[in-house]
Write a structure and sequence with these properties.
Blueprint lengths: L1 E4 L4 H12 L4 E5 L6 H11 L4 E4 L5 H10 L4 E4 L6 H6 L1 H22 L3 E7 L22 H19 L4 E7 L1 E3 L18 H9 L6 E4 L11 E2 L1 E3 H18 L1 E6 L5 E2 H12 L5 E4 L8 E2 L4 H6 L9 H14 L7
Parallel strand pairs: 1-2, 1-4, 2-3, 4-5, 5-6, 6-11, 7-10, 8-13, 9-14
Antiparallel strand pairs: 9-12
The structure holds nicotinamide-adenine-dinucleotide (NAD) and uridine-diphosphate-N-acetylglucosamine (UD1).
Nicotinamide-adenine-dinucleotide binds next to helix 1, helix 5 and strand 5.
């Protein structure tokens, strides 16, 4: 039985589908701070398999201990946390509380219950400004905002834990830019308010919820001057977690990138989305967004080695097509 914290969220819900399809039993714990219960109903609809949901907070150690015990959990996949960079600058204490204290309570609850296998959602943001590209896992770690620092502190906490007790198994997965949706169009990313990230914004322009895209920066040292990122299909990412569960016991503690190793510029993404949706995406070239880098993409060899040959398979066209299917079938998200 796998405990999935934050399983109702964007990446968590897609991972629940892949876990259930792979034959795992799961229990989801979520406080629904940034998600809807509907996503889990849709997971049931896709997989036609039952699973339990506990409404609870990872900062509540008693709830965690009870859940681990009642359901006989043997491993945890830990998605729960806050993830908006700008918010983290405005409200750092909320981020330290949710992401660091929350994970600390989770690890204490796991220790109490003797559950010592965990997969943690980290982020490429832990690398900070690139000293070289692609980012290998040995790239210096120097996050430039509070959100990124919470991810780094948790990574260090996990490494210290394994150093103190080698019976723990820890997989740290550093995600690049997850986009897309399950091919059914039933689950997808449903951001609250104005989206900060590129794909949700583009999709909302395509569906008519927003007039035009602001392209943040067109004078970067990239082929067309706009920012380049390593976009990865959320289903590939989810399957990376299933692969990590298989290998986690052999490894002690490992950290790997989950990306495709390829970069696409903002304008390439806009074009791919226009083709996928048949809609035009009006845009305006605007000044750079503070904190952005020109290019960011992953070295992928270590992930393939640690995750039994796993590699991201879906291309940018598939990512845009699946993202559009979700957005067009659910123009206002889950509860619109
Ligand atoms: P999300 O916000 O859609 O999902 C997070 C889930 O955790 C939500 O369902 C939310 O309600 C829940 N949650 C938050 N705080 C909680 C708490 N204290 N107790 C219980 N539940 C809580 O985000 P996502 O995009 O699915 O991201 C999942 C994880 O991956 C996060 O840890 C995020 O930092 C990390 N990550 C995401 C991205 C990305 O681009 N989406 C990139 C790198 C890393
Ligand atoms: C952002 C976060 C990063 C997080 C990642 C998750 C910042 C500074 N970084 O990264 O910590 O891990 O999301 O996916 O917020 N863009 C536009 N117009 C828009 C939105 C984005 O032009 O309306 C451009 C950006 O300038 C960038 C690219 O699109 O070049 C991707 O942006 P975004 O989706 O926000 O991801 P990141 O900046 O990579």
């Amino acid at each position: 039985m796998i405990l999935v914290t934050g399983g109702a969220g964007y990446i968590g819900s897609h991972t629940c589908v892949e876990l259930l399809n792979a034959g795992h039993e799961i229990v989801v714990l979520d406080n629904f701070a940034n998600s809807s219960r509907t996503s889990l109903e849709r997971v049931r609809q896709i997989c036609r398999k039952p699973f339990a949901v506990v409404e609870g907070d990872i900062r509540d150690q008693a709830v965690l201990e009870k859940t681990l015990k009642d359901f006989g959990c043997t491993a945890v996949i830990h998605f729960a946390g806050l993830k908006a960079v700008l918010d983290s600058v405005k409200s750092p204490l909320d981020y330290y509380d949710n992401n660091i204290i929350g994970t600390h309570r989770l690890l204490r609850a796991m220790r109490t219950r003797g559950v010592k296998r965990i997969i943690f959602s980290s982020s490429a943001t832990v690398y900070g400004d690139p000293k070289f590209l692609p980012y290998t896992e040995d790239h210096p770690l120097n996050p430039v905002n509070p959100y990124g620092r919470t991810k780094l502190v948790v990574e260090e906490m996990l490494r210290d834990l394994v150093a103190s007790d080698s019976t723990w198994s820890v997989g740290i997965l550093r995600y690049f830019n997850p986009i897309g949706a399950h091919e059914s169009g039933l689950i997808g990313e449903d951001p609250k308010g104005v989206p900060n990230n590129l794909l949700p914004f583009v999709a909302q322009v395509a569906v008519g919820r927003r007039d035009r895209l602001n392209v943040w920066g067109s004078d970067y040292d990239t082929p067309d001057g706009t920012g380049v990122r390593d976009y990865i299909h959320v289903v590939d990412l989810a399957q990376g977690h299933v692969a990590a569960l298989k290998t986690i016991d052999q490894a002690g503690c490992f950290a790997v990138n989950l990306g495709t190793g390829r970069g696409n510029s903002v304008l390439e993404v806009v074009k791919a989305f226009e083709q996928a949706s048949g809609k035009s995406i009006p845009y305006e070239l605007r000044p750079r967004r503070s904190g952005d880098v020109a290019s960011c993409y992953a070295a992928t060899d270590r992930a393939a080695k640690y995750l039994g040959g796993w590699r991201a398979a879906r291309d940018i066209e598939t990512m845009c097509r699946d993202h559009w299917r979700w957005q067009s079938q659910n123009p206002k998200g889950y509860d619109g």
